[in-house]
Amino acid sequence: MAPVYICGVPVHVLTLAQSIAVAEELIAEGRPHQHVSVNAAKIVRAQRDHELAGIIRSCSLTNADGQAVVWAGRILGRRLPERVAGIDFMLGLWERAAHERYRVFLLGAEPAVVCRVAAIAASRGVDVVGYRHGYWGQEQEPDVVAAVREARPDILFLAVPTPRKEYFLARNLAELNCRLAVGVGGAFDVVAGIRARAPRWMRRAGLEWFFRLMQEPRRLLARYVVGNTAFVLLVLREAVGRRNARG
Hints:
The protein has 247 residues and is an alpha/beta fold. It has helices spanning 16-29, 40-48, 50-58, 67-75, 86-100, 111-123, 141-151, 164-176, 187-191, 200-204, 208-215, 217-246, and strands at 4-6, 9-11, 33-38, 61-64, 103-108, 127-132, 155-159, 180-183. Strands 4-3-8-7-5-6 form a six-stranded parallel sheet, with helices on both faces.
């Protein structure tokens, strides 16, 4: 399962269904694996954050959680079949967890939110063996890791921002005692109904970013304007470099 590389960042060439199948294969191995989703902002950050870039390269499964990454792949001749949104990957794994009786731990978000998400997951047949909010200091991290380890989950879903979730998982993966650790960002907020998700037609058109921008313009405007511009420049630079190399 060799990845393609978008601006130096590996991305596996998988559909959502294929990604879930690979995740189940990783769970069956019995040793710890880390999953990561990449979007334009994360690829841009990885250019200057070498620790994050190394973590992404070390992950067993990397999905393109951003239509811009899929478009970039087409421009660079590294076609990706579709965007695999983190929330869709999580919900797909919930279905498999209910069927296969995987043990699931939910970590992150506000206390009331993760409690609500745990109840929703349990109502769908998921064996939720533990949950905890995502607010802890460095001195509390060993206790958080111990709580997950003692619950012995097959899958850990971590809903905290980038790059905190990538750093936390990479730093503690061996101690967490889970077979697959999945960073899901703001997915818990969407499942709990705190934040709306874009209509399906907008997601299919690659406009989910615009829907989120309309919801949180103050927080996201700079991120999208600056980050997306930087990503476009990265892709163009790589495309020109490849063309010059061929010429």
